[in-house]
Amino acid sequence: MRRECLLAALALALGPLSAFSGEERLAPESLNPASVEFTPLSPALQDVSFQETLPSLPEEKGTVPFSPFSKLTITPVSRVSALPVAQEIVALKTSPELGNAARSLIPKRLLSEKKGTVPFSVNFDGAHADNSQDSDLDAWISQEERVALSRMSKNISPPGEAKGAVAASPSRENPDYWYHWVRDAGLTMNAVATLYQNETNHAKKRVYLKMMKDYARFSRNNQTTPTLSGLGEPKFNMDGTAFNGAWGRPQDDGPAIRAIALIRFAKALISEGNWKLARQLYDAKLPTSSVIKTDLEYVSHFWKQTSYDLWEEVRGHHFYTQMLQRKALLSGAELARMMNDPGAADFYEQEAALLKPEIERHWDEEKGLIVQTLDQDAGLNYKKSGMDAGVILAILQGAFKDGFFQATDDRVLSTVVQMAETFKNLYPLNQKADAPGIAIGRYPEDRYFGGNPWVISTNTFGQFYLRAAQDYAAQGFIEITARNLAFFKGLNFPGKDNLRPGLKIDNLNPLFDPILNALREEGRRYLETVRRYANPDGSLSEQMDRETGMMISARDLTWNYVSFLREACEGRSCLLNPFPKKPKNP
Ligand code: NOJ
Ligand code: NOJ
Q: What residues form DSSP beta bridges with 551?
């Protein structure tokens, strides 16, 4: 078991409060390099030495490696009183990487200490003043798009590893994410396939082409490498060899996501007349030796079995997994027809049709929720609410043009508003008076790294509202129902008190535009949240500390950047799932 999983298991044993509360938490190695500079002001403290409670401290006088979880200890040479030490607090400066993040050192037991060790804790606010100085969110978004693109690319085929491998994050320890996760890689390469498709500059296009070809080859190699769970194997070593440690396996969203990315690429190739390469990706044979068809055969034959969820913790039937399986089958059927494989196309469509009622089963009318997992038969036992941001990820990533479970579905809206409310109350971060919006986690009961909001979840909620606005605009009307009433009442626009179930608001109704604007504003508040806690250089780690917002866990998470690229869709070029101009099927 991985260290982080052991930590989570420990948290489970001790209960959420004791295991990860405040400064008892381990400082993840992935924290940004940073330090606190200490300028001794008073003579009594001239010779103080700093110590972090964490081991392996480089003893550089006056400077300590810093994290919000560090316990700083000051050991004065002689008797000190409260005053001079308090003055030192004024002199606290943080390194530029942290911006103005560390606000003050709070003496813990200062008055009772006479001589000896004085423990301090750092009062930390993860918000970066720098990020908010420029009030223009749009400017920040376009800048962040460039950061996301370049940092995402760095994790694709990094030097010294197999070509086509995509690291989930450069973090090698606590957590170790230096692996090719089939899910993360597939979502990433789906973005690259879109970049390839849209690129007009020849040199850049060739770079994306090479990335895609390497990824296809690497993926085919994964499929033929013996692993503990076969095609549903969740992750591989970066040199392409099997990862055989204990893990939640199989994870059946993986082959579906891999297929979706490569199908997108194959269709782009076909539109350019490159049938030769497309046929290497899909060979229309059985048994097949091509990467896409291998995954489609697996998805169509194995979707009925239970597998581990996208968070790798619970085995069952998951809304997320099934939505992506369905999308893989339907877009796969389209490709199969193009490749003159009509029998297969029929079969994939037939299995997709069987999946549909299975997906519908996740709607729980009583709870007003699309429940992520049904038929659980292994894994964590404390996920009780059924709420899971993976459901909203599924709405965006699993959207197919037939409009099944699209963003305007009242079951989806009901799920979103309840989750937003729950996460709002859950994290101290969201209670801050100046919180721009709500930071969202994976699911409320989460204990991994103490249970924090995640960048991908928060981005996804932001994009969700923007997507809903787009879909309503295209559809031309909004229907208020008993299920979605609370969602619309939660938005900020004049006249919302007049809403009642049964009301149909068409685009001539004076409420229509204010509602669309309110949806967009709500979406942008999530982006503001990510902006506030992003590192000043735009880099993004997996999680935001639930109290301070400080970036924690895996740094430069590849998936973060992908989810960010989805964010900037509204009103500008969108890298993923470009918003349809025509209404979808209502
Ligand atoms: C690692 C998994 O990737 C993560 O999703 C999970 O929460 C932890 N292990 C704890 O089980
Ligand atoms: C843990 C997340 O729960 C999982 O979804 C992801 O695939 C891995 N980390 C790698 O990023």
A: 544
pTM reported for the whole predicted model: 0.82
Residue 480 to residue 485: CA distance in whole angstroms? 6
Number of Cβ within a 10 Å radius of residue 428: 12
Per-residue tokens: 95: 């390194």
Q: Map residue 7 onto helix, strand or coil.
A: helix
For a ligand 1 pocket test, name from 448, 449, 558 the mutation site with the most ligand atoms within 8 angstroms of its C-beta.
Answer: 448
Q: How confident is the model at residue 574 (pLDDT cuts 50, 70, 90)?
A: low
Query: For the structural domain made of 132-146+418-586, what CATH number should be given?
Result: 1.50.10.10
Q: Which atom of ligand 1 is nearest to the CA of 8?
A: 10
Rounded to the nearest whole angstrom, what is the distance from the C-alpha of residue 8 to the centroid of ligand 1? 8
Closest CA to 437 of 467, 416, 458: 458
Q: How far apart are CA 511 and CA 493, in angstroms?
A: 9
Beta strands in 385-499 (DSSP E): 477-479
DSSP 376-396: EEEE-S---S---THHHHHHH
pLDDT per residue over 474-524, tens digit each?
999 999 999 999 999 999 999 999 999 999 999 999 999 999 999 999 999
CATH class of 155-360: mainly alpha
pLDDT tens digits, 253-281: 999 999 999 999 999 999 999 999 999 99
Q: How far is CA 191 from CA 185, 216, 325, 558, 573, in A?
A: 10, 14, 18, 11, 13
In the chain, list all ranges with CATH 1.50.10.10.
Answer: 132-146+418-586, 155-360
Nearest bound ligand to CA 379? 1
Query: What are the DSSP calls for 319-340, one per residue?
Result: HHHHHHHHHHHHHHHHHHHHTT
